[in-house]
């Protein structure tokens, strides 16, 4: 039986929004999104680029526009400790697939500690599976446990740099989870600096930078080329630092 349409088919500027000279419109990737729109396919899409290129800003805005908290969690979570999100979520509109699932989850690495506290303060109802003791786990263990516990139904999953807490082997485990989600009909949008995670076969890779947004093959990514060159001869880089 074929799956229903994927949750988000296209992201574009909301009606009446024009590109301005203020942030985040000054970020080339954001400017291109607002000017040209962005079609988002089914399965897994990675956003890859340098710090400040706009990938996290895009993921955050799309997640919030879908109905998730800017500090992470599912579409039902309403965690808010300090408003730091950009206004971009109010300036875009999502074209959703007809009959697509409305469930979603936003994993934002920098706010996960607060999200664990939110879960403790807002436990699941009696009779439902209770949350794991995330605060008593290591950083990486809590990430993997959360992904295993919460990424369990068809929906739209947004991840912002999940590798920040993960070892090499744990990153491989995340690849397995993303593959399972795609095969079950879920849609994933993930911003990452990890050449390991971005190597997921069949995924779409969008490289963001001064050019805006462009689709790229894994082998052509500047990220991959830099890591290959460093691992091949780290002394070429370190001699300029040490």
The CATH H-level homologous superfamily: P-loop containing nucleotide triphosphate hydrolases
Structural class call reads: alpha/beta
Number of strands: 10
Please bin the fraction of helical residues. 25-40%
In the CATH scheme, the class would be Alpha Beta
CATH architecture: 3-Layer(aba) Sandwich
**What sequence of helices (H) and strands (E) makes up the elements?**
EHEEHEEEHHEHEEEHH
What separation lies between the terminal Cα atoms?
59 Å
Biggest beta-sheet profile:
7 strands, mixed
The share of residues in extended strands comes to: 15-25%
Query: How would the global form be characterised?
Result: globular
Evaluate the radius of gyration.
18 Å
- How many H/I helices? 7
What's the average pLDDT? 87
How many structural domains?
A: 1
Unreliable spans are none
- The oligomeric status of these chains comes to single chain
Sum this structure up briefly.
With 242 residues, this protein is of the alpha/beta class.
Walkthrough of the structure:
- The protein has 242 residues and is an alpha/beta fold.
- It has a single domain (8-108, 151-238), classed as Rossmann fold, CATH 3.40.50.300.
- 31% of the residues lie in helices and 19% in strands.
- The protein contains seven helices and ten strands.
- It has a seven-stranded mixed sheet.
- Helix 4 (139-150) packs parallel to helix 5 (168-183).
- It is globular, with a radius of gyration of 18 Å.
- The model has no long low-confidence stretch (mean pLDDT 87).
